[in-house]
Amino acid sequence: MKKITKKIRATNPFRNRKIIAVFLYLACFIMFGFVALRFSWIMVKGEINGEDLLQNIDNLYTRNTVLQANRGTIYDKNGNPIAMDASSYKLVAILTDEWSSPTRPQHVQEPEKVAKILTKYISMSEEEVLEKLTKNSSQVEFGAAGNNLSYDIVSQIQEELEKENLTGITFQDKKTRLYPNGTFASHTIGLAQVQSDDESDEAYQQLKGIMGLEQTYDDILKGTNGTIEYQKDPYGYVVPGEEEIREEAVDGSDLYLTLDRRLQVLLENVMEEVDEEHTPENMTATLMNAKTGEILATSQRPSFNATTKEGIDQSWQNLLVEYAFEPGSTMKVMTLAASIQEGTFHPDSYYMSGEISVAGGTVHDFNPDGWGSITYLEGLARSSNVAFVHQVEEMGYDTWKKYLDNYGFGEAVGMNLPNEYSGSNKYEWPLEKVNTAFGQGLSVTPVQMLRAFSAIANEGNMVKPYLVDHITNKTTNEVTQFEPEYTESLISKETAQKTLQYLTETVNNEHGTAKGYKIDGYEIAAKTGTAQLYNPDTKQYYSGGGNYIYSVVGMAPADDPDVILYVTVQQPDFNGASQGSEVVQKIFNPVMKRALEYMDAEDGDSTEIVQNEMMPNLIDSNTSEAVTEIQSKSLSTSIIGTGDKIVQQFPLEGSTLYDGQKTILLTNGAMTLPDMSGWSRSDAMKVSEMTGVEFEFEGEGYVSEQELAPNSFIEPGTKVKLSLSPVSGEEE
After folding, report:
1. pLDDT value, residue 147
2. What phi, psi does 123 have (nearest 5°)?
3. Which residues does the UniProt record annotate as the domain PASTA (predicted)?
4. Per-residue confidence (pLDDT) for residue 236, from 0 to 100
């Protein structure tokens, strides 16, 4: 048997190691090259995975802070603030020590002590606060209880914490909009609100107008935010010596309106009383300067309190410009003027009242049986529909349409308010054409009616109603002044004067529908309206009950009107009133009377001037500093409210100061009733005008007793009884 052997070649271990070493060397070289290349790429590009490393480092140590621009203030015509910026604060507790330095702790160290202090000022129990302060979290907030805190509350909390040397509590301030008058032309003034509650959102704390003038003039009011950029250390403190890059904020411009706060407060008070007593579907009332078109006061129901937002869910519609309705017999003012201009109105001629057949239908007076054969002047006094159908027939349908267009019906006035309606002026069917003579078959807005009425009150020149008197740029002091805008109507001066003269018949004539609108000492030209409401379901007008829009327009003094007041009340509960017109009178009469009194030249005042000084402007001043300034003039002052800043003052800036004169300052805090002992009725009324509180006076002379104690909290609409005695308490 042959033996087979296998020859095995010996391997060299040194050679294998060399190969492995070369492989590892090459691998390391390649890896090092890759890393070096990667680092070089990062160094050149400065980014990794799409992230900018330089920017990240900059973000880590650079702090950008937004400088909030102050939103412009909205004032009434006399400089009283209507809408203004305010700050509220949110309570935050820092629980982590990662933002603290050894010498500067930033977190809550003694939660029990902190809880005892906080529970005094927020509506949470000590146990609830302590539970928050001991959470395993970086920081905590306190919900609604710790939100919207006033400056006064924040100051008191900080003072107590500093006294006990307690840390960890901070406050985040945010802009809010303050409307110090409560319910005050709310839909017209509008609202400005923050657009986001997210602090990371760029819109955070940015107020934006969402209604009314706040919305229309948002770009002018809001201003431009600024920024601060600076370097910080790991603990968040500013690095000393580093340059701060600062771009200042530019505050928004201020709006000065045509509204007169005294008249507006009165109007809101009477509207509220009527609303509570008669619960109408809606109401509007607007007082306008007949010569210039300035809206002096305007209100509606439903309305809302702009500060508390109470009632805002009832309606977002601004009835002044968004309420389109058939005006009813107040349109006869315009028909009367057109027929006088055309020579077809013959006041002493007779016609048969009651009803008239026209255009395939029948038009009735509100008294279907009529009053027999009467003159057209009596027909005006009685508000006869038939009388005005005759006027349109005599002047011709085409001619009457020419006047309707000239008055501006069917086109928007251009009030610079959102969502203004243009109404309708179709004028298509024969019966529709006739019905426009007494306010049916077309739809209008209150502001359109005011524009048309101004042609009668202003010698034939229509004036555009407006709300903004001027805009002041606080940075440049540039003033943009708004001027009256006139449109020549088809009505001549002579026709306008005759129309006013005839309209006094509705007030003075024994048969006049406006007899209840007399104002002692003044001649009023007026026209009432009782407009039917159209039911879209039945395609017919409602009939009977209170299913009407009751209205009145008054222009006074009748020989040369200073003011026009237009009031509408839809579907009120009579609640003791015999007719809808009595409900309207409760608004019209007190407002028109007060407006005419204000328009009259003031009587000379024999009070001796003790010093040749003028009242300074204390608006926006610190409360204590304002008091010191007034006291330096040897005058006493009464403070209304708990705030730290003055928002209204009496007397107004530039008024001459008299010996013993009362000065009254309203702050931005919750309103309080001053001690009015020894005050005259007129001085007390200044408090009413500033606060919206209604005083009921008993007796004559000076205040001897007040129903609410001094410093009691009050709000617009509060009623307070004041007892007067013949001798001033101060003299006693």
Report:
1. 82
2. -85, 65
3. 667-726
4. 56
pLDDT of residue 610: 40
Residue 579 belongs to domain spanning: 261-599
pLDDT, position 732 = 31
Q: Are residues 189 and 334 located together in one domain of the fold?
A: no
Please report the pLDDT score of residue 486 as a whole number: 97
Q: Which residue has the tokens 């007793």?
A: 705
Q: Do residue 565 and residue 650 come from a single domain?
A: no
Cβ–Cβ < 8 Å for 244, 230: yes
Asked which of 223, 256, 289 is the last residue of a domain, the reply is 256
| pLDDT for the residue numbered 177 | 86
Separation of alpha carbons 430 and 194, rounded Å: 53
Domain match, 582 and 534 both: yes
Q: Measure the CA–CA gap between 108 and 316, rounded to whole angstroms.
A: 45
In a domain, 605, yes or no: no
Quick one: pLDDT at residue 731? 36
Q: How far apart are CA 50 and CA 445, in angstroms?
A: 59
* Sequence-ordered list of residues with C-beta below 8 angstroms from that of 95, at least 6 positions apart, any chain: 107, 108, 133, 135, 137, 138, 139, 140, 168
C-beta separation of 338 from 396 below 8 A: no
Pairing state between β 295-301 and 637-640:
unpaired
Q: Is residue 5 part of a domain?
A: no
CATH number at 126 reads: 3.90.1310.10
Residue among 390, 378, 380, 406 at smallest CA distance from 491: 406
Q: Is 101 domain-assigned?
A: yes
Domain count, the chain: 4
Whole-structure pTM value: 0.74
The per-residue pLDDT for 605 is: 40
Name the stretches of the chain with pLDDT < 70.
1-15, 38-64, 196-205, 230-242, 601-613, 654-661, 700-701, 726-732
For residue 9, tell me if it sits in a domain.
Answer: no
Q: Which of 256, 275, 299 finishes a domain?
A: 256
